[in-house]
Amino acid sequence: MKKIIFSLFVALSSVSAVQAADANAGKEKSATCSACHGPTGVSASPMFPNLAGQNDAYIIKQLKDFKSGARTDAMMAPMAANLSEADMADLAAHFSGLPSANEQAAASASTASSTDATPVSAPAAGNVDIVSSSPAAAIYPGDVAAGKSKAVACAACHGADGNSLIPMYPSLAGQSANYIAKQLADFKSGNRNDPVMAGMVAALTPEDIKDLASFFAVQSTKVGTGESNEAGHNLYYGGDAAKGVTACIACHGVTGKGMKQAGFPSITGQSKDYLKKQLASFRDGSRGNDNNGIMRNIAIKLSDADIEAVAQYITSLK
Ligand code: HEC
Ligand code: HEC
Ligand code: HEC
């Protein structure tokens, strides 16, 4: 009897915790989740579960279990690692409130003739709005031509077409507009620190940022010409289960092009020097602008030898 009363109490208190959650805040926090679970909580890939319409208490329990390691999954572990209890409750409130996959399918069947883009999840602060339901067809509202003339100021370091010739400076060509816009906003707010870039972004307006991001996003990335190596290849594709390192491929993709909608950047075409510097900066926390500590959580487990090998390997991605 005591046991029953106790579990009732637990059940009731978790229900009230859920009611205090903020679905709108959850929607904002879910930008990262949409790459795999879909912008409307319905996944486009059979590999990833739907979350739309799922019970909120169940979602919270799974996130806690991924965080504690009671449920293991190489992709979800780093997603859950830095979520607070409030984040989990907000995310659960958001996903549980979305119409289920079946309801969404029925609704889209009845409005099949409509050409309206389905709303996507709210982009995090600093992101460019994506005006399309499909990442491949994402249209960025920035003005590419205006971006081109504004990018003259960037050419000395990043190259006229966004392909940098100097290893210290990252290439921007073909990078997702969302990611570029986020980095510029982060340099501006000081969330990402770099003395050179801080000076460059100080005078940029939100409109400049959109235009520049759109211009660089439509330039062509140069393919990697570096040498491959086995240790780096293994880490990139398989991660390191013993150390708890998620495979880079989960977020940066098979050819390193990233996942635009989730804000996972393209890392193809970058120099080894730049890649090593970023991994080391995530590892020691001097770069801390990754949402939920996604990259810091991974980098902290990498040795110098791992960083050397994986950075070298990434330069071979085509
Ligand atoms: C890189 C892809 C990826 C991203 C991004 C991602 N997930 Fe997942 N998620 C998965 C996979 C894969 C599973 C299934 C794990 C398994 O097989 O046990 C999963 C499972 C889950 C589950 C359990 C679902 C169930 O039915 O048991 C929840 C809840 C969840 N994810 C929430 C989230 C939230 C919230 C975010 C964003 C903070 C997120 N995920 C981001 C890949 C991802
Ligand atoms: C004097 C050289 C210089 C100029 C000019 C310059 N940058 Fe940079 N930029 C850098 C350096 C150095 C970094 C890398 C900072 C670091 O190591 O974290 C960088 C990083 C970036 C990043 C982040 C890239 C990534 O992959 O994360 C973006 C976006 C960017 N710059 C955009 C611009 C834009 C837009 C302009 C023009 C308005 C510009 N930069 C002008 C030197 C420069
Ligand atoms: C769970 C998703 C995820 C995984 C797995 C992951 N990354 Fe990342 N990575 C990110 C995100 C998100 C960012 C951008 C953070 C930000 O907003 O600045 C990033 C940024 C980076 C950058 C900086 C890019 C730039 O242009 O400055 C490098 C380099 C990088 N990751 C390498 C790796 C390597 C190597 C691995 C595997 C050992 C890996 N990542 C695994 C999500 C991931």
UniProtKB/TrEMBL annotation:
Instruction: State if Iron is listed as a keyword.
Output: yes
Q: Which GO terms describe its molecular function?
A: electron transfer activity; heme binding; iron ion binding
Give the SUPFAM superfamilies listed for this entry.
Cytochrome c
Name of a matching Pfam family = Cytochrom_C
- Where, if anywhere, are coiled coils annotated? none
Q: Which UniProt keywords apply?
A: Electron transport, Heme, Iron, Metal-binding, Signal, Transport
Signal peptide feature range: 1-20
Q: Describe the location of the Cytochrome c domain by residue ranges.
A: 21-99, 142-220, 227-318
Asked if the keyword Metal-binding belongs to this entry, the reply reads yes
Instruction: Show the InterPro entries listed in the entry.
Output: Cyt_c-like_dom, Cyt_c-like_dom_sf, Cyt_C_IC, Cytochrome_c_Oxidase_Subunit
Mind telling me which PANTHER family this protein's record contains? CBB3-TYPE CYTOCHROME C OXIDASE SUBUNIT FIXP, CYTOCHROME C4
What is this protein identified as?
Cytochrome c class I
Species name: Colwellia psychrerythraea
